[in-house]
Amino acid sequence: MKRKVGVLFLAIFFVLIGSAYAELKVAVVNMQKALDECDAGKAAVEEMKKLYSAKQKEISEKQNELKKMQEEINNQSALLSEDAKQAKLDEYQQKLKDLKRYVADSNEELKKKEQEFISKIATDLKAVVEKLGKELKYDIILEARESGVLYNSGKVDITSLVIERYNKEWHARKK
What we know:
Layout: H1 2-22, E1 26-29, H2 31-37, H3 39-76, H4 82-135, E2 140-143, H5 159-174
Parallel strand pairs: 1-2
Protein name: Outer membrane protein OmpH
InterPro entries: Chaperone_Skp, Skp_dom_sf
Family: Belongs to the Skp family.
């Protein structure tokens, strides 16, 4: 008797679970693709290119200054006293050290700025995904690359919809 009740209970349990899964609405979104292809992401890339170019120009100017200084030292070494030569070498070494520090600081600044862009856009994209999930009545939306999704048919990929919706919101905020 107990066995029949247990089997009946399991049968009902599996029928209920099966019907619950039949109604489950799942989607995937590739957040990296959305980040790369949305207009805000493209604008951030352009902004980063400008910042990088400006820093690279400053670094090149400082490198040229050091190169000229080294040439002066080489050309004047026979004419300078040991103290004057040492003073020039010390100045050169200090400027070289300053340049290395500037390059490291610039790299750190650029990384920080890039992270700020990524963080802001990713937060906004997540909000769009959440809105779409509620609006389109999805039960689960998985990140295609991070959640361990090994395959999806493409039918459940809403990345292009997320990009489209985000672009509309982003352009509306810019006005």
